[in-house]
UniProtKB/TrEMBL annotation:
This is Oxidoreductase molybdopterin-binding domain-containing protein. InterPro entries: OxRdtase_Mopterin-bd_dom, OxRdtase_Mopterin-bd_sf. Residues 1-20 form the signal peptide. Residues 68-144 form the Oxidoreductase molybdopterin-binding domain. Keywords: Signal. It holds the Pfam family Oxidored_molyb.
Length: 170
């Protein structure tokens, strides 16, 4: 019985992977360069009190994709990455807000409710390729702008943070 309860507890803190396998955040530290740190009110963690992700770890999360134009790009592109609501839910976050920090120092506070109202992704691929830093990568909190006119407001554009390096759960 104890073994069953232990396995159930471990499964509760797992991240589903593409293909149905699972990876526990707290037992998997990144093996490649860290491209995302999540700090604040989260559990589980894998490096001290933080969750660190390398590209491989983000690619193993369930992926979502959409095609959209953006106010910053010249054409409609196809983007791929985990849904923000899924990433945060795996870290025990289902409400409140997050502060997203970019490599260039830009910060935006985003209510977690946005991620339930819209299919916002943490895009790591554009048209099947990793997004280069000089072209808004490596990670971009991206709203599906073409799916709802409400997303074209200035308020929502300020929440679409590119060159994401840190998410602080408030």
């Amino acid at each position: 019985m104890k073994a069953f309860l232990l396995k159930a507890a471990l499964l509760a803190f797992s991240i589903p992977l593409a293909g149905g396998a699972s990876m526990s955040v707290e037992s998997h530290a990144p093996t490649g360069p860290v491209i995302l740190k999540v700090v604040g009110d989260i559990a589980p963690t894998n490096v001290d009190d933080e969750a660190h992700f390398d590209r491989r770890m983000l690619e193993q999360l369930p992926q979502h994709d959409f095609a959209t134009t953006t106010p910053w790009t010249d054409s409609r592109n196809h983007y791929e990455g985990p849904l923000m609501r899924d990433l945060l839910a795996h870290l025990g976050v289902e409400d409140g807000s997050i502060n997203v920090l970019a490599l260039n120092g830009y910060e935006a506070e985003i209510p977690v409710s946005d991620f339930y109202d819209y299919d916002v992704i943490l895009a790591h691929k554009r048209d099947g390729e990793a997004i280069p830093v000089r072209e808004y990568g490596p990670l971009w909190v991206l709203y599906p702008f073409d799916q709802d006119d409400a997303l074209l407001s200035e308020k929502m554009r300020f929440r679409a943070v590119w060159q994401v390096m840190l998410i602080n759960v408030l």
